[in-house]
Give the backbone structure.
Amino acid sequence: MRIKIDHIGAGGDGVAMGSDGPIYVPYAVDGDDIEIKFKGKQAHISHIHTPSSYRTTPKCKHFGRCGGCALQHVSPDYYISWKQKQIKLALGHRGFEDITILPPEISKLGSRRRARFSVLGQGKGIALVGFSEKSSHNIVNVTECPVLDPKILALTDDLRKFLGKALAKNQKMAIQVNLADNGLDIVFEMAGEPDLEMRMDSAAFADVQDIARICWLDTRLKKPFNEILCERRKPYVTFDGRQVYIPSGAFLQATKEGEEALSGYVKHALKNVGKIVDIFSGCGTFAIALISDHGVHAVDGNLEMVTALKNSANRMGRIRNLTTEVRDLFLRPLLVHELKNYDGVVIDPPRAGAREQIEEIAKSDIKNIVMISCNPATFARDARRLVDGGFIMGDILPVDQFLYAAHLEVVASFSR
């Protein structure tokens, strides 16, 4: 079947209009004249008759199989304009028209500091370590990646050797890797408990590879718990010059550059505001950046993250203007009468947004807000409620920490 691609959709696939509706084609670009075949409902390029002028050579040999990247095949200018367009489209669906979108902050190659690998034992001392193919459970055995920090990528060969001996044929595992400032922090995720041999071998592996910490998560448990197998030093990251010791598997901004761009925006937007509440604070990315000049109350539903922030603040000394609270913000959002204690809000919810919490903020007397989001669609929904509640939305800064993926971080200020 021969088609011409009209545009790239929000998920990163090329879109053409067929007789029965839109056809989505991975790795296609506006203007591509292509032949496609279907595997089930999924279309694939079988031949490019005339390539789009926006096409370029991908940077990775795995591109087109590995599902980690969607947009390595488009030119840099097109890539930037496409990311900006996704914000405009999302906001346009919510009635926003005159929108100022600042030039995006794009993280450089090799800066991604967290990754989640899939692992499959092959038997005979062999294991696949990599990422899943697009729309498949098949694992691409990744030997290069232009996005990942080289320190993470360099570990994959040693993981193959180590886990090739530890895993039986067709045995599966996931590995969460965070690059802390003082080394790698790793979580092995698998059904069942590690046996004595795995515990001993993990400690030896950490010593040889100079890994800061290795933990184990038994995926059969109803309540997740990361058991420490080996902690040679407690991993930490630095927020605004202050060290925060992170729990295993901690959520971090994907790149240090992205984190600094977001923190810089937050500090500038709230520089003249008094006491601030940091909602969905995690382990303190924004709370720590603000405490030099503001009183900050950090709230999050993750006990380990909040405890890490609190304990790290105690180690810093002379931090008297930071308080913390563990709270399920989806079941118990901060209410209007509680928000009276603060002059400003910074809120960084998960991809689903924070509908209930935004409702309370919109009804409150809060005058200054900074909202961060990794989903332009839910950002637009929550921004609409704030603007309908009397706020004015300021300039929007796109922060691209997910290079070559369809994802995009967005930050904006709101004031009454």
